Amino acid sequence: MTRHILRIPWAGPAVALALLFSTVDTRPAAATARESFAAPAATAGPLCITESWEFGRAIGEWVEAWDDYEWTVPGGTEEEILRAAEQLDNATKNVVQTGSRLLLCLSKYLD
User: Fold this and answer.
1) Residue 16 in this model has a pLDDT that exceeds 50
2) For residues 23, 57, 105 and 96, what is the CA-based torsion angle, rounded to 10 degrees?
3) Does 4 map to a domain?
4) Is residue 55 in some structural domain?
5) Which element (helix H / strand E) includes 99?
6) Cβ neighbours of residue 23 closer than 8 Å, sequence gap 6 or more
7) How much is the pTM?
8) Could you tell me the pLDDT band of residue 59, with boundaries at 50, 70 and 90?
9) Residue 86 to residues 51, 52, 56, 81, 97: CA-CA distances in angstroms?
């Protein structure tokens, strides 16, 4: 993680969401976990495990892209900086898309 990321106002909630909705397990393990929650899910509806896993993964990729961009800017060539900026832009779009899907899934559980 970079030293400047915690100065951004939304970094705290983003890190909290990433920790809350991310898993350390692989995708098959997440599918196994989903099956273990099958009984409660039958009464409460499907849990948003897939969406939260994808969102956590997207946050991790975004942090890696941000770190790559921050290391490239000071001494990188124009081509390297543009590549890192494009990678960061794509990671940001992925976070927005997966976050939107997660929010839509979670909104079903609001009363």
Assistant:
1) yes
2) 150
3) no
4) yes
5) helix 78-107
6) 29, 30, 33, 52, 53, 56
7) 0.56
8) very high
9) 24, 25, 20, 9, 17
